[in-house]
Amino acid sequence: MRRRAILVLIGALTITVCLSVAVAISESDRHTPGFPQTTGNLQSLFQLPINVSDIEKAILELSKKGVLSQGEAEKLKNFSNMSFKDAVARIENPELRNSLLNLANKSTLSPEDIEAFMNYLNSLKASELLSPADELLALRALEALASAIQSPYTSEILSKMVSALKELEIAKSSNLVLTFKGPQQSSSEKPLPIFQSVPLPSLQLPSAPQLRFSLPRIPLNTLIAIASCCSIALALLFSRKLLGTFFKRLKTRFIGKIPTPEIGDKFLEAYWRSIYIVSAISGVKKADAETHREFLARASERLSSRVAEVFRDITFAYEEYRYGFRAEAGQRILEGFRRLTNYAKASS
Amino acid sequence: MLVVMGVFDVVKRELIDKGILIEKERELKLMSSALLSRGHALMEGVPGVAKTYTSKALAKLLGLSFKRVQMTPDLLPSDIIGYYVFDQRSGGFVLRKGPIFANILLVDEINRASPRTQSALLEAMQERQVTIEGEVYRLEEPFMVIATQNPIEMEGVFPLPEAQLDRFLIKVVTGYTTTKGLIEIMKRADEIEEAIESLKPIVTREEVLEEFKRVRSVKVDDSIYSYIASIVEETRRRPAVRLGASPRAAIALVKMAKAWAYTSGRDYVIPDDVKAVAIPVLMHRIIVKPELELQGVTAEKVVEEVLSRVPVPKP
Asked: What are the chain B neighbours of A322 within 8 Å (beta carbons)?
């Protein structure tokens, strides 16, 4: 039983120490790997403060880099101050021009109209009937139209312009570099200089999640407290034997001064004092539900044969005196008690 | 200390010391104590653990009249008690006494008899008399019913009603022997059988009746009565118990403790005597809640728990 208790305590102590170390190490980083720490970057994607001037700056940068041809740059000149009519007039594709004019004739600009026009642009682009300059001019005309009637879709059109410019850049550039940047992006992965003025959406791409042993948060203080308790319990368990011997010697030293139970019968008192002495010598305490013979049997296992014999005589004499109403047995109790006291004193 | 050679001493010398009954000392001591307390014993055990042999050997040794009834479902009360038959010679009805008119009646496999037949034993066990055709017949002292039952079989048996169980002073659960004992039995099987058959009475009926008086005079201190009362009351307080021990159980405990003390060679009862007989006296009188019974709680365990909780008299 005691060995089991020690093993359990050692196990508990080891687990607690391991947990303390693990908690101390992983205290700073407890988020699931592969996912962003905050959602701030995701929100910025949908709140881009882009205006037409930024687009114009980007066009100029692209022109300087040679991504846009001289003619295209010329057509896109003064992009930010261009009116709807100017933009439409500069478009080469007549069909596109007519579409825009038809759109202008409408009193309102619904999301369906914008979507239909975007699809139309995409179809022209797919069939290679749309030049980059025409695309940007068409989008500029659409933006002017939307701004004039204070349509809420202006930002979407501007985003489409940014996308068009990016596509243009990617198509012309031989060395493709991701322009999406994240908070932990390395210095080598810088965005292209042409978009430095445009606040591009930044999103950390989720990486493949790594499996990691994860435990519920346990305060370090609690673990230290548990470890301390286990250590104290272990120390007590190991030192119990030593302490037990010490207290046994201490008790037997004071046998002459043991408290006398107030029963009013010197023979019965002698028996109960014998029990006290035997308990001190053997370290076995008499339980309330234990009979005199049961206690005798249990204590005798830890007593020397001479002391056990004396205590046996006392117990049997007590039974005769107490339950058999034999007065003469009282003297045997007293005699046995004297012998027991002498043995106890000699052994201490 | 008593120096009188009591019933149990004789039984022990003849049956245990001579190796006729192996590892049955406790059972014999309990049954001798039950006889000296004028009580009846119920022996429970699986088939083949010498229940019948033990009872038969005890009866033979004591020189008392012994009858045996093998219970079956079709057995009638009159088959046990007796009945009147017409005698052509005398031209009137004469009583044909049943096996109950014996000092020791061994009722083998009592739970095989129908409840009607089982209840026929009730009057005899409690009142020590039987009524046949309105006439009351006193049974000769000592009168002891030793019934055996097999706890395993569930089909074709009628469990004893609580009222009848309460009339048995003790229930002795007898089990298997140790390996050493089993080897001894196997070696001496024929010899044991012959020895039991050839047993001669050593104790007379008068001597047994004299012992009744001695057992009755065994001293019981007031603190022992209080101890027994505490045990009985504690059985009613246990949460696992549906029905605790009755006042009749308390009386039975006192009687058995006295007889146990006497068979142990004392004329006074000590707490150990009470503890020694508490389980055989109380276990068949306590009803455990069915839901807890299914979980393995038994009346025996309840009594053990009670004994480990109730303080013995002090000082």
From this structure: 221, 315
